[in-house]
Amino acid sequence: QVQLVESGGGLVQAGGSLRLSCAASGSILSINAMAWHRQAPGKQREFVASITSGGITNYADSVKGRFTISRDSAKNTVYLQMDSLKPEDTAIYYCWMATRRVYWGQGTQVTVSS
Fold it and tell me: Contact, 90 vs 63, CB < 8 A?
């Protein structure tokens, strides 16, 4: 059974930084891509950033220049370095992984105070 476990969320002041991690475990043959999405209170879940098995990255316009996605393929782990955080970045951040199926993590709360 495949499992995604996120960590690294928390409370930070505006302008601060956090680093999220997501470790995938279980019967994983091949990862096509991993990504982060987020859901703020009262809003729909939205795409944040993704990285393919070839290292190609993509970002939502709202986080470009502030967030960086990276991965450690040997550990089946994806990271999200979040800098210059803003109160509007407050959300539950979900890890996403695509193999032959799509998997979601349980989410980690990020709260940015003004």
Answer: no
DSSP helix/strand/coil, 4 = strand
Could you tell me the two tokens for 44? 């729909």
- Which residues are within 8 A (CB) of 111 and not within 5 positions of it... i.e. 6 or more apart? 10, 11, 12, 90
Tens digit of pLDDT for each residue in 21-58? 999 999 888 899 999 999 999 999 999 999 999 999 99
Whether residue 84 contacts residue 66, with contact meaning beta carbons closer than 8 Å, is answered with yes
Over the stretch 50-96, which tens digit does the pLDDT of each residue have? 999 999 999 999 999 999 999 999 999 999 999 999 999 999 999 99
Alpha carbon 8 to chain centroid, angstroms: 10
User: Measured between alpha carbons, how far is 67 from 17 in angstroms, rounded to an integer?
Assistant: 9
> Among 74, 104, 111, 109, which Cα is nearest to 92's?
109
